Recover the amino acids of this structure.
């Protein structure tokens, strides 16, 4: 068991290293209680005084050296909202610092047991609360956008769920039978491929109409909820956000999505230039097929293989270098969504389409900006020469990208590919990326074996694995899904192998003891364009292989991101509500409040490791001062809390100016520790070296709990 030293001090002679940490600026709330540190009441009082004097001096020096600068106020970053997400895919490389992408789902709050015979169960992850149509499954206060809603039950027939109600900014925009909605009975924009039923997305149903809101969102269903997820974005301000209206059919967006796999979905660029050539690749050799200098963007890549084979699509690799760094080194087939070989893939950003005569046309349309140089190379790792590859690379000169990449406002297109056996007890990692950027999709190839379970004699049990996504050092997953085929928005093992290739999700290939597959093999992909997951200092993208990683298939994957190597946050302050020294230094008030010992674990990868700490609970107004950097672009205020009770909510004010409501509707009585983050907009923090945070619990809400607040200053442009 780990023990956080929250609200106590330790004997100096036994803990000199701990005091050295304080001198280095590490707050007392992050000191770890070692087996050799013994707390005594005398030591507590003595060291509290020492800490107070020491840290008051540190804080005083910091405040004295941080003269307020003139505020520099910028807009809401480079985010695209609503239908513009799909109308302006040319802006996909831009990174937005004021956006969080979150998920609520029906994942098993207990983490599931170690019984190999059973699959993922709904556990306690059903309704968040009663309300709306009956059962609330997602709720948010502030500005944001709903980007993907997925359900399944009864093999994909969701009739028994009855009504779905979607309320945005206090107005009901959808109130209809869920089955009718996904069957497209409501008409555009709620038609395929922005909605799909269980025949169009085998075993699952989804709604992918982007629905922005300025103040609030609530989604509810009538009854009989089983498996679901809701993916949504949260913005720090409502700037540039208009509430979704179902009266706009967005026919142009529907036309773009329905043309997926056949044409570039981005706006036309008049200055685009084609580099078309036919090349032959010797065995074991590489060849540059295109290069460019100056500032620009690679907007399309087309390769036609005259005699494609599964082995060729695995043995040819695509390498792309931007500004002197290799950002793509991927097997050709998986990069284009055909990880098992010559499947029929028709996604919005890449395609693999068999042609008359037996050739295979590979196309991709990711915008790939560069400031100075770009090189595209094909590498033949097979033992045979490959003649007659028709290559066409489309490049558009554009001076905007040099400045955007240099400042970190845009990211370099990046593909992280890996392959090999999975490891028992550990998630398969799609990517483990430092710096800042965003995750926009994945192509995933799975080769496993079927086993006998309580629900099937031949279950591809590895598909029971759920995705877990962590950002910026948070111990809580920002996403926690319900199963592998659920992540790809199908269900029930993709209706036992049914193939599909939708613009944003697909299982274009599945093989059973055939075509080079020893037993059961799956190729799947998901594009996350509206629900791209942004990060400021790190992202860790993983997926289980079977419940609790209990089976060991062979996986390969190619994750698609836009990345920059530098962090855009700097740790600025750390507040411990249960420590008298920290309370004094930060002018912390919340009377009356109570402190309670909590021994529990976080959800996710490390959910069997208990952590001990003290949690403060209060219904009172809470205020505290925090240090920031004057040249900030907003702050991330992260709370470590006890989520045993959901719907903790508080009004947030910065220096007396209201900024919104901090709502955390989730709850978990099995894994009670939770890290969640509130985005404080730049307009309230720019030019300030210190701010006062006021949290006013909403009347009739549960007690507001916290054992720690961490402040990270946003430093990116």
């Amino acid at each position: 068991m780990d023990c956080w030293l929250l609200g106590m001090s330790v004997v100096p002679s036994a803990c000199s290293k701990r005091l050295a940490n304080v001198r280095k600026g590490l707050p007392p709330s992050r000191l770890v209680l070692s087996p050799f540190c013994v707390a005594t009441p005398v030591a507590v009082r003595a060291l509290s005084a020492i800490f107070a004097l020491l840290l008051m001096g540190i804080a005083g020096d910091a405040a004295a050296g941080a003269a307020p600068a003139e505020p520099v106020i910028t807009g809401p970053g480079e985010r695209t909202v609503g239908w513009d997400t799909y109308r302006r895919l040319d802006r996909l490389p831009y990174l937005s610092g004021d956006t969080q992408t979150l998920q609520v789902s029906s994942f098993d709050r207990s983490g599931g047991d170690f019984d190999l015979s059973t699959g993922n169960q709904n556990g306690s992850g059903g309704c968040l609360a009663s309300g709306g149509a009956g059962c609330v499954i997602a709720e948010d206060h502030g500005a944001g956008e709903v980007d993907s809603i997925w359900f399944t039950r009864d093999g994909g027939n969701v009739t028994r769920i009855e009504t779905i109600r979607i309320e945005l900014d206090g107005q009901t925009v959808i109130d209809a039978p869920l089955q009718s909605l996904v069957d497209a009975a409501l008409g555009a924009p709620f038609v395929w491929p922005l909605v799909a039923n269980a025949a169009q997305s085998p075993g699952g149903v989804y709604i992918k109409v982007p629905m922005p809101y300025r103040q609030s969102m609530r989604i509810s269903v009538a009854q009989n909820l089983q498996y679901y997820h809701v993916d949504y974005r949260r913005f720090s301000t409502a700037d540039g956000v208009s509430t979704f209206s179902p009266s706009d059919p967005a026919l142009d967006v529907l036309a773009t999505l329905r043309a997926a796999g056949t044409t570039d979905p981005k706006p036309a660029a008049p200055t685009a230039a084609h580099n078309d050539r036919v090349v032959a690749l010797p065995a074991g050799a590489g060849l540059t097929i295109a290069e460019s200098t100056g500032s620009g963007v690679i907007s399309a890549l087309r390769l036609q293989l005259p005699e494609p084979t599964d082995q060729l699509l695995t043995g040819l690799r695509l390498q792309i270098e931007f500004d002197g760094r290799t950002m793509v080194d991927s097997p050709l087939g998986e990069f284009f969504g055909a990880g098992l070989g010559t499947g029929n893939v028709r996604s919005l950003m890449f395609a693999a389409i068999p042609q008359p005569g037996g050739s295979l046309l590979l196309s991709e349309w990711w915008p790939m900006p560069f400031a100075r140089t770009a090189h595209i190379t094909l590498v033949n790792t097979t033992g045979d020469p490959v003649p007659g590859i028709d290559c066409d690379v489309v490049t558009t000169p554009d001076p905007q990208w040099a400045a955007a990449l240099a400042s970190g406002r845009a990211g370099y297109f990046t593909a992280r590919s890996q392959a090999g056996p999975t490891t028992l007890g550990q998630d398969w990692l799609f990517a483990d990326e430092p710096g800042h950027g965003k995750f926009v999709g994945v192509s995933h190839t799975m080769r496993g074996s079927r086993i006998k379970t309580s629900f099937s004699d031949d279950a591809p049990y590895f598909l029971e694995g759920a995705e877990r996504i962590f950002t910026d050092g948070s111990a809580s997953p920002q996403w926690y899904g319900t199963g592998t085929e659920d992540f790809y928005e199908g269900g029930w093992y993709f209706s036992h192998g049914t193939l599909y290739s939708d613009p944003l999700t697909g299982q274009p290939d599945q093989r059973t003891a055939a075509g080079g597959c020893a037993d059961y093999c799956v190729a799947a992909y998901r594009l996350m364009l509206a629900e791209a997951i942004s990060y400021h200092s790190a992202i860790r993208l993983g997926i289980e292989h079977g419940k609790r990683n209990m089976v060991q298939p062979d996986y390969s994957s190619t994750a698609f991101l836009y990345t920059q190597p530098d962090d855009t946050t700097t740790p600025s302050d750390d507040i411990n509500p249960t420590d008298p020294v920290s309370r004094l230094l930060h002018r912390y008030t919340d009377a009356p409040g109570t402190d309670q010992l909590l021994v529990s674990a976080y959800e996710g990868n490390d959910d069997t490791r208990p952590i001990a700490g003290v949690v403060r609970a209060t219904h009172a107004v809470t205020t505290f001062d925090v240090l920031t950097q004057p040249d900030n672009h907003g702050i991330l205020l992260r709370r470590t809390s006890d989520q045993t009770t959901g719907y903790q909510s508080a009004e947030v004010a910065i220096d007396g100016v209201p900024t919104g409501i901090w709502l955390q509707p989730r709850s978990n009585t099995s894994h009670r520790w939770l890290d969640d983050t509130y985005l404080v907009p730049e307009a309230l923090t720019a030019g300030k070296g210190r701010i006062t945070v006021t949290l006013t619990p909403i009347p009739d809400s549960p007690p507001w709990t916290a054992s720690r607040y961490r402040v990270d200053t946003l430093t990116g442009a």
